[in-house]
Amino acid sequence: MLPRQARLRTPFGSCYPQIATGKWHHALWVREMALSQLRKGGPQWHAEGRVLSDEHFDFQGGTAQPHTRREVRRMLSPNPGTAASRTD
């Protein structure tokens, strides 16, 4: 199975200048680029809940956690620089 991948939707390209739109990228890399941008004060977007918004990105691939059949998505935490995980 493919690793979890994310593709930035074209209308949101200006929100993530380091990520090419319309191209599949490893989701962990995309998440780190987005978090780095937020920490550095780069172009900001309304980040609530997930680091990578379903509105801004398409997703494919990945594996389910054993015994849950749910994938883990990293959440933004109230404290900058730390993140929690959740399943959905």
Topology:
Layout: E1 5-8, E2 24-26, H1 27-40, E3 57-60, E4 72-76, E5 83-87
Antiparallel strand pairs: 1-2, 1-3, 4-5
Describe it.
- A 3-stranded antiparallel β-sheet has the order 2-1-3.
- The protein has one helix at residues 27-40; strands at residues 5-8, 24-26, 57-60, 72-76, 83-87.
- The two termini are 20 Å apart.
- It has 88 residues and is an alpha+beta fold.
- Residues 74-88 have low confidence and may be disordered.
- The radius of gyration is 13 Å and the shape is globular.
- The protein has one domain.
Short description:
Helix content is 16%, strand content 24%. By secondary structure, the chain is an alpha+beta fold.
Q: Percent range for helical residues?
A: 10-25%
Main sheet makeup: 3 strands, antiparallel
Shape, per Cα inertia axes: globular
Mean pLDDT: 76
Q: What is the strand tally?
A: 5
Beta content: 15-25%
Termini separation: 20 Å
Tally of individual domains: 1
- List unreliable stretches of 5+ residues: 74-88
Annotation keywords:
1 helix; globular; alpha+beta; about 90 residues; about 25% strand
